[in-house]
Amino acid sequence: MEGTEWLMVSPRQPAMVRIFRILVQEEIHWSQDGERMRKTRCEGPGCAKCAEGERRQTRWTLGVIDRADGKPKLMQVGAQLMSQITEFATGSNPMRIFAVLGRKRLRNPENYDFTISREGEGRFGRYRITHHERKPLTKGEQSRVIDFLADIAGQAIKTK
Ligand SMILES: [Zn+2]
């Protein structure tokens, strides 16, 4: 992902974004590494962490337009944020969020900017989203998105 920027939402720095694509869904583990908790990717069948009974969490890598500079970037989010987006799109608060794309939608999240803020660090972080008024992407924004998707096509997106 050389040259591809990641948008990080820190407690001090909320972000306004347009989400245009769910790119990757993966499972991760949090493990103790000295005094810190460290995030590692689940290796799937045969994973040593799974064998030790460590809990897995789902992470999504999204393609977003960062409204701070207008650039398409990658952003990694967890279930808290994805369930809020699903709730926005479907009007319901599902226990499982995997049906987001198959579920009948009231609102298409691709047509709205969201402000994402975060409270707390690392695995204790809590995300909140608020939406702005409906505003489909302009032709110029759409072509930037297409260029971005072409740039990252075929590249392995590694977890942050
Ligand atoms: Zn695992």
Question: What's the SSE blueprint?
Answer:
Blueprint: E1 15-33, E2 36-41, H1 48-51, E3 57-66, E4 71-77, H2 79-90, E5 113-119, E6 126-131, H3 139-152
Antiparallel strand pairs: 1-2, 1-3, 1-5, 3-4, 5-6
The chain binds zinc ion (ZN).
What would you note in describing this structure?
Helices cover 19% and strands 34% of the residues. It has 160 residues and is of the alpha+beta class. It has one domain (15-152). Strands 1, 2, 3, 4, 5 and 6 form a six-stranded antiparallel sheet that branches. A hairpin with a 2-residue loop joins strand 1 and strand 2 (36-41). The chain is globular and about 50 Å long. The structure holds zinc ion. Residues 29, 42-43, 47, 49-50, 56 line the site of zinc ion.
